[in-house]
Amino acid sequence: MMNVMVFDIETVPDVESGRRLNAFDGLSDADVAEAMFTLRRLKTGSDFLPHYLHRICAISVVFRSRDTFKVWSLGELDAGEHELVQRFFDGIDRYTPTLVSWNGGGFDLPVLHYRALKHGIAAPRYWEIGQEDQSFRYNNYLSRFHWRHVDLMDALAGFQARAVAPLDQVATMLGFPGKMGMSGAKVWDHYQDGDLKGIRDYCETDVLNTYLVYLRFELMRGHLTPEAYESECQVVRDALGASDQSHLREFLNTWQSGTGE
User: Fold this and answer.
1) Are 86 and 121 spatial neighbours (Cβ–Cβ below 8 Å)?
2) CA distances from 139 to 38, 126, 179 (A)
3) What is the CATH number assigned to the segment(s) 4-257?
4) Model confidence pLDDT, tens digit, residues 139-189
5) What crossing angle do the helices spanning 226-241 and 196-221 adopt, rounded to 10°?
């Protein structure tokens, strides 16, 4: 298995832009965010903000190469958004991995596009569609139906919006741990409480679930034999078992005590 990078982002309201766009001068960050949610509810019936008004507070990845398996969150705990986004696209430029996500095409990548635009971050490998490298003409990161980025939610639904499923439900159905400790809707509350580590830990369990679903997807596609699939699952177990991170050990314990592998 060569250079697979599973990714997930966690976001909070971009209160700086919200303040600028709506002339919310003098309001606290919490009040600006609440006003942004209220405006959105009035417009759409939901307080889920448009993509360009999300600010990234965590990016977690699973990276699997021929001899490496690693799960971590990009940057140190105090790293700013610019550094997180820079590191993400630098990894693509360096390794040209197969990107894997759950709804990355619908959410994570568009948000990353807007934040890279905001911070002036160059990502030539990611945006390549064949002008400099012919191999990207028919297999690039940007086309919905190419495989350089595998949006598992989209692919498993046959690219039909009415058939999409939540990661938590699919992972649990397959015997994997599913959501642990938090949900995306609670990230802003945890962020306001200063619990950035909790957000990053939660994001890391999400990418682990996504990677395990991806392994099953590769088995289904015939890219992994049953033996290779079991071997890849064992690589994950071994890495989690050797970790000194309590949330990773808890993920392993939940997985092993469940009805899955």
Assistant:
1) yes
2) 41, 12, 32
3) 3.30.420.10
4) 999 999 999 999 999 999 999 999 999 999 999 999 999 988 776 678 999
5) 160
